[in-house]
Write a structure and sequence with these properties.
Elements (H helix, E strand, L loop, with lengths): L1 H14 L12 H23 L3 H6 L1 E9 L8 H13 L1 E17 L2 E14 L4 E15 L2 E12 L6
């Protein structure tokens, strides 16, 4: 619980602009390695959608994930999070999409905030198609040697308005 509280505090401190990625305790090479590692997480999110791989998608997230959206939706447990995404992935027949990593803010050796823009064009099993765009902010942290998404917020947008 202490670790979770620390990350939540870092998130609040980041949001107020008190921490920057220009960390004197991290070398340029360390910052670049962290930025590359966490950027790969965003690309892996897209890969999981395109491959319709719910296990790969869930594996990118910590078991203490909290997800919120601009629609007022907040997951309250890992079970709720996994149930939501298992249902979503189960309805998919195929996905095409793009992702653009917009910013990586390094908090320390084990935490960073990642912003990305994702566009998904989904073909559903029932024959319908669905297009979804979102700006995503994720707090990622190293847990037991693996980088995981621990907090995420998604703001959706109509694709035709943001091309």
């Amino acid at each position: 619980m202490k670790n979770l509280a620390s990350v939540m505090l870092l998130t609040v401190v980041f949001a107020t602009g008190c921490i920057s990625s220009d960390r004197p305790d991290l070398s340029l090479e360390q910052r670049a390695a962290i930025a590359d590692t966490v950027s790969r997480i965003a690309r892996s999110v897209l890969d999981a959608y395109v491959e319709v791989d719910v296990e790969g998608f869930l594996g990118l997230h910590s078991t203490d994930i909290v997800m919120a959206s601009d629609r007022g939706y907040i997951t309250k447990s890992y079970d709720e999070f996994t149930s939501t995404y298992r249902g979503s992935f189960d309805a998919l027949n195929g996905v095409d999409g793009t992702i653009e990593v917009m910013n990586v803010e390094i908090l320390d050796h084990n935490a960073a905030v990642l912003n990305w823009r994702i566009e998904l064009h989904m073909m559903m099993k029932d024959g319908n198609t669905f297009a979804h765009g979102a700006l995503v902010t994720a707090v990622v942290a190293q847990q037991a040697g693996e980088w995981k998404i621990i907090r995420t917020h998604e703001s959706g947008f109509p694709l035709d308005e943001h091309r």
